[in-house]
Amino acid sequence: MEIIKIGSDILRQKCESVNEITEAHSKLAGEMFKILDASRGVGLAGPQIGVPQRIFVIRLDGDSPRVFINPSLLETSEETALGEEGCLSIPGVWAELRRPKRVKVQAWNEKGRPFSIEAQGILARAILHEYDHLEGILFVDRLSELKRERLMAKYSKLKKNQ
């Protein structure tokens, strides 16, 4: 498995719900963590590796690895914060992006156990970023048109120089 880059249609599709969580999802989550760690990322969603299912993983320094299957956003704070974001599907570029400071989400883990979590700070930002992937939204879509154009021009330049 490799990380799919911007331009692929799968990154723009709304993902299908997982009907039944099986051992295959546990294995998939394990593979996703391997790819995430090798890429030195924070989060990775199914469509980024060609799996159009509602699953993502997050691993933050100092926190245990987290698997989210069929997540639902229950609540987001009105209070927002600016933070720098990048994406493994658009490597080498980052931008300041405003997102809610807090989020409450319900999901299932790789063992099929339901959970809910209230997150803030970088974990909230990571959850919202990965959730967007499941909806076919990339972080650049949340930038102004001018910022998005500049960022994509920078990305194109980086790709040419590789």
Summarize the SSE layout with pairings.
Blueprint: H1 23-39, E1 43-45, E2 55-58, E3 66-76, E4 80-87, E5 90-100, E6 102-108, E7 114-120, H2 121-134, H3 145-160
Antiparallel strand pairs: 1-2, 2-3, 3-6, 4-5, 6-7
Mean pLDDT: 96
CATH level 3 topology of the domain at 9-79 and 100-138: Peptide Deformylase
What is the CATH superfamily classification of the domain at 9-79 and 100-138? Peptide deformylase
Global Rg: 15 Å
The percent range for helix content is: 25-40%
Beta-strand portion reads: 25-35%
**Which CATH class of the domain at 9-79 and 100-138 applies here?**
Alpha Beta
Question: What coarse outline follows from CA principal-axis ratios?
Answer: globular
Strands of the widest sheet, in order across it, are 1-2-3-6-7
Q: SSE order, as H and E?
A: HEEEEEEEHH
Low-confidence stretches: none
| Helix count from the secondary structure assignment | 3
- By oligomeric state, this entry counts as single chain
In brief, what are we looking at here?
This protein has three helices and seven strands. By secondary structure, the chain is of the alpha+beta class.
Write a structural description.
29% of the residues lie in helices and 31% in strands. With 162 residues, it is an alpha+beta fold. The chain has a domain of 110 residues: Peptide deformylase (Peptide Deformylase, Alpha-Beta Complex).
